[in-house]
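<instruction>
Derive structure tokens from the sequence
<entry> Chain with its tokenised backbone below:
===
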Amino acid sequence: MRIQHFIYYTLLCFVLVGCGASKNNKKRWNQKTTSSTSYSDASGARGTVLKKRNNSLDDYANVLGVSKSSLKNKELYYFIDEWLGAPHKMGGLTKSGIDCSAFIAEVYKNIYNIQLPRTSRDMAEHIKKKYTKDLKEGDLVFFSFGKRSIDHVGIYLHNNKFLHVSTKKGVIISDITDPWYGKYLERCGSFKK
């Protein structure tokens, strides 16, 4: 009887703590963005602020360290602007929560009219490999965080910057040469149609 009570109270605690964490995440997502909030953690771009919405092409060019005219696919950046800051949710498919492979598939479907496989591992099987120095806007970058297989994907933008869904920060622009990402970069290249 004591064991049953212990199990019951332990499960009850997990449910209550889990629900509290969920409410806090929702609260953070709905908060107004302040001028100090940035949706880029890319080195070289730190201190440059990207808001959750209504960034201009100049803002993106500034974060990426390129001229505005270098942003060839303007629709890509308008699409990014709609999703910037959307939270991570494993298996999620919407702006209220999405995972990395679903987000990248959504970008490819809407911007390039290409249907990608659902998982990052499957996507990686369909690329023409490139060296990082040869990457172009829209190429895919794949990571393996502590496992032997690929478990994360992003889209290359410019100057080693890439778009992805961070488990802690949601949809964000990061830098593949930052120690954290560089250490786990597994493969990159363009998708073979």
The first helix runs from residue 2 to 30. Confidence is low (pLDDT under 50) at residues 5-36. DSSP finds six helices and eight strands in the chain. The CA atoms of residues 38 and 147 lie 29 Å apart.
